[in-house]
Amino acid sequence: MRALRQTVEILRKDLLLEWRRRARLVAVLVFAVNVLLLFSFALGADTGTLAKATGGLLMLTLLFSSILALGESFRAEHEHAALEGLLLLPMHPVGIFYGKAVANTLFLLLLAPLLVPAALVLYGGALPAGQLLQLLALWAAIAAGLAGPGTLYAAMTGRLRSHDVLLPLLLFPLVIPVLVAGVRSMSLVLTGDPMAQLGGWVGLLVAFDVIYWSLCGVLFPYVVEEP
Amino acid sequence: MKPITWQHALGALGLGLLVWGSAQALLVAPPDRHMGDVSRIISIHVPCAWVGLLVYTIAMVLAVGSLWSGRSRWDAALTAAIETGLVLTALMLLTGMLFARPTWGVWWTWDVRLTTTLLAFVLFAGVLTMRSFLEEPRRRATWTAVATIIAWVDVPLVYFCVRWMRSIHQVQSSPDTIDAAIYWPMRINAFAVLFLALWFIVLRTRVERLREEVDEVAPPAPVVTAA
């Protein structure tokens, strides 16, 4: 019960900080739109190709943006040793992990309302009006898949000088299942699912989320507690 | 430190079995009816796969031990196991490609078995890369263990994916489905590769422990970069 209250407190603190500054949100949004633009230049102006690849390009944009967002999420904690302060309060590391992970998931979820319409406008697709809720739920599952292990690795690499290199190096191969399942399910929602394949891919996403959110919660205390 | 002798017995036994098993595979076993002599490569491909996954699992157990005990000898053995696992996975991928080209017609295909195996390689390579960035021994040990446990989640996926999903790679065979002339060389080589892998792990652990001793006596000079 206490861990839950602490999770909520950390979440509240992170969201409040984010809201007061909004610097990270603006930076990540501008970065994401830039990536979307770059993809359309890389693939050429053929709307047919772009429309077919929309799901994949959206997922890659989210992945690249998440590296930026996750890397920043622990900066405040590592500056002036705020993380040690939180642990001395005493706050349980598990509460810190889940608070941070939920905050990061919400942050990545916040990118959806801007990125999905932008991608559909730029790449020439139509938003299936009846499936908005489905798309949002899918985005949430993908965001959670990136944010769970991402939060753990951001906590680890954040205090190193070479964190810009290490975070993508560790996170990219790990989240490949999220990427694959995300691309397939996103494409199925955007372009139709005549063979009813969506269930399997969503199942893979949910399984990934459950396994890594539990495992990272168990391992997080070892990472932050100094020996 | 005591002189090592029994470890070399492991190596000698492994090498002897490898020569025997390979001679059986190359000279005694008949060529496959459809694939011809190409099929003989499985008698080294499959043992590398089995022992590779086993060694990763040993690494995971060592990682749990390292986190639990905090002793540096677990960390040294863990690093040795990851390195040995990487060598075996590389051999497995290489022999697999040599087998795939004449039988499937391609060097590589994005099949679920191949992808998850490559993923395991990249994940564990990432763990070693992260390790090389860390200088403080306790933190290096903890983080290597955490990253190893997270990376290991892919290992059961490599093993079971051919049963769970559609795959071009065949499912696991059993002695009921293969002739004794084929599975005996494979079994002998499996023990050969296992003993060789254990030999490498023991020797590599020793090197790591000696390096630790050297670091204790004469710590590496801090890197000074020109301003």
Please provide a written account of the structure.
- The complex is a heterodimer of chains A (227) and B (227).
- Chain A has 227 residues and is mostly helical.
- Chain A has helices at 2-21, 23-43, 47-73, 75-78, 82-88, 93-110, 112-123, 132-157, 163-174, 176-191, 198-224.
- In chain A, helix 10 packs antiparallel against helix 11.
- The model of chain A has no long low-confidence stretch (mean pLDDT 87).
- Chain B contains seven helices and no strands.
- Classes of the chains: A mainly alpha (227), B mainly alpha (227).
- Chain A binds chain B through residues 149, 152, 156-157, 160, 162, 165-166, 169-170, 173-174, 176, 211-212, 215-216, 219, 222-223, 227, and chain B through 67, 70, 115, 119, 122-123, 126-127, 129-130, 133-134, 138-139, 142-143, 145-147, 149-151, 153.
What shape does the CA trace of chain A take?
globular
How is the quaternary structure best described? heterodimer
Shape of chain B: globular
What can be said about the biggest beta sheet of chain B?
none
Strand content of chain A: under 5%
Whole-angstrom Rg of chain A: 18 Å
Tell me the strand percentage band of chain B: under 5%
Topology:
The complex is a heterodimer of chains A (227) and B (227).
Chain A: H1 2-21, H2 23-43, H3 47-73, H4 75-78, H5 82-88, H6 93-110, H7 112-123, H8 132-157, H9 163-174, H10 176-191, H11 198-224
Chain B: H1 6-28, H2 42-69, H3 72-104, H4 112-133, H5 137-152, H6 154-164, H7 180-217
Helix pairs in contact in B: 1-7, 2-3, 2-5, 2-7, 3-4, 3-5, 3-7, 4-5, 4-6
